[in-house]
Amino acid sequence: MYRAVELGHVIAGPFAGLLLAQLGFDVVKVEPIGGDPTRRDDVMGDSIFVFLNRGKRSLALDLRKPEGREVFLRLIERSDVLVENLAPGALERLGLGSDALFRANRNLVHCSIKGYPSGGAKSGWPAFGTLVEAVSGVMWSNGGARLPASITDMGAGLYCALTVLWALLGRRQGRYEVSLFQSDLAWLGYYVIALQTLGKVFEASGDRLPFWAPYELFKTADGRIYIAVANDAIWARLCKALRTEACSDPRFATNAGRVQHREELHRVLEAETSRYGTDELLRLLLQHDVPAAPMLDIKAAAADEDAPWDLTSAGGKAGVRVPRLPLPGSLDGARAPEVGEHSREVLRELGYGEREIELLIGRGVVKP
C-alpha cells in the first residue's frame, strides 16, 4: 500500500488526499494541534471536514517545534507521497523545503497546490477559490457568479491526484506544482482558442450555452426544464416533438441563426413549453430523442436513488449520506478522524517508543 502524507487544509489539499484515500492509499493527515480549521465552522458545522477527510488517519503535530519537524521528516522518509496546499514559502520557513524533504526521501513524489503559478506576478496573492475564479475569467464567463461549492479548489485537487498517480506509475519522483489559477484557465480552453482563431468572445449568459441554441432553461407549467439542442439534427427532432411556429421560420434554420436570434427563439419556444407539465414535457422530448432534463433543487438531488451513496457520521448523526466518488475503491462507512486520533499509532509505526511518545505529548509537540 502506498502511503501519502497530506499537509493540507480547508479544500484543495484535503480533496486530493480524499481521492487517494478512496483509491486505497494510507493517507496520514498532518494537522496543527488545534486541527484543520474546517473542523468547526460556525455556519457549515463539520460538513466540509467530514466530506473531505473520510478514511484518513490524523497526526496532530506542531511543525514549529524542532521535534515536530523531526517527526514529520521521519514520516516523509517512510512515505511515498506528500500532498500540500500551504502558502508560498511556508514549507521553507518551517525548514521543510525541497532540500530537507528529498534528503529524507529521494524517491518522494511531492505535489504542491498553490493559488497561482510560482514565480509569476500573482504568486503572492491570497488564493481562495472564488478569488481565483474572479481573475481567471471563469467568474466573468459564468455571468459574474461564483461556481457552487468549492469546484475550483476541488479541480486543483483532482489535477494533483492525477499528477501523483502519473508520477508513481512512471517512477518519476520529484516536486510537482498544480495551481488553482491554471486549473480554472484550463476549463476555458476552447474559449481561448476561439478568441485567437475566430476573434469570438462568448459573453456570460447564465444558464445558456452561448454558442448553441436552444441550449438553456425553459419554463413549464410547474417548473423548469433544460433543453440542449447541440446540432441541426436535434433541432429537427425538437420540431417534430413540439410542432412550434419557430420550426418554419428561416431565421432558425441553422444553429448560427438560432444563436443570432436567441431571444426571439426563446420567447416562441417558451410559449409552447409552458403549456406542459415538466414530467409530461420530459417524456415527450425523450421519446423524440431530444436531450432534456428537469432542473431540480439540492433536496431532490440528495434524495436521488440512481446515484450511489456512501454512509458516514457527521454533525453527531450516523447514517449520513455522501455522494460516492466516481472512482474505484470505497469509503462507505468510513468517517473523518478526530484531531490526533492516530498520533500514537503513527508514531509507533515510525519507531518511537512509548516513553518518547509521552515526552512528545507532554511537550506539546503531538496531540494524541
Assembly state? single chain
Helix-residue proportion? 40-55%
Global morphology = elongated
CATH architecture of the largest domain: 3-Layer(aba) Sandwich
Per DSSP, the total helix count is 17
The whole-number mean of residue pLDDT values reads 96
Strand content: 15-25%
* Low-pLDDT residue spans: none
The total tally of domains equals 2
Query: Could you tell me the radius of gyration in angstroms?
Result: 25 Å
CATH topology of the largest domain: Rossmann fold
Explain what the structure shows.
Helix content is 41%, strand content 16%. It has helices at 12-22, 47-53, 66-77, 90-93, 98-104, 129-136, 138-141, 151-169, 180-187, 189-198, 232-242, 255-260, 262-273, 278-287, 298-302, 343-349, 354-362; strands at residues 3-7, 26-31, 57-61, 81-84, 109-114, 174-179, 215-219, 224-228, 292-294, 309-314, 317-323, 366-367. It has two domains: 3-190, Rossmann fold, CATH 3.40.50.10540; 215-295, formyl-coa transferase, domain 3. It is elongated, with a radius of gyration of 25 Å. The two termini are 24 Å apart. It is of the alpha/beta class and 368 residues long.
